[in-house]
Design goal:
21% of the residues lie in helices and 0% in strands. The chain is an all-alpha fold.
Amino acid sequence: MNSVQVLTKVVAGVAFFASTLAVTALPSVAENPAHVRQLLETKSCANCDLSGADLSDLDLAGANLQGANLNGAKLWRTDLTAANLSRASAIEARMHAAKLAQANLQQADLTLVGLVLADLRSANLQDANLLGANLEGAQLAGANLNNARQTMAGLLRWQQASHGNMDVPMDVAGINLRDANLHNASLSRASLEGADLAGANLTNADLRFAKLHGANVANARLENARLQGTILATQKESTALLIHSAP
């Protein structure tokens, strides 16, 4: 199976799963109102239940949301600059155009999260789970994605808790980084299998030992990228990357 077929299968799996969740979601999945009030009043709500909450357009810069449950939450255009979201669970959260520059998202579960056009410059996403995440057009210059991964564990737990016994397609994968700005970003040892990096800016990026099996790198900018030990699907893809990377 070539990389185009892999990517097509990946995108189809993510789209199918996301649409299935939208249809089968249960109304019982909702935030704790007391926790929402606490967040709004103090900007500190570690380990809070904010699942499904609508927190769009709020100023939560510097907020402490360490370990918080943000599954299914709406954070459209929310200002989370320098916020602490380490170990938070944001499965299928909608964070399009959110401001997350310098935010701490280390070990956060961002499965199926929507971060289209989000500002993640210099954000820490080390060890974050990005299974099926959509970061199309996101600003990730200087971001740390070392050891970013794609795992099913959190998704399966959430699916079981909120959606009963619904089947989860096991081919859900692939991070959408199309046209994202990853200039100077660190992606060492990141799991990017099946990722869509078409048109992405990876100049000066650190991709050492990253896993790019089946990734789409068409028209990606890779000038001066560090590619030692990068894992690719075919020799042809390896050659294409090397041609555009540092001599």
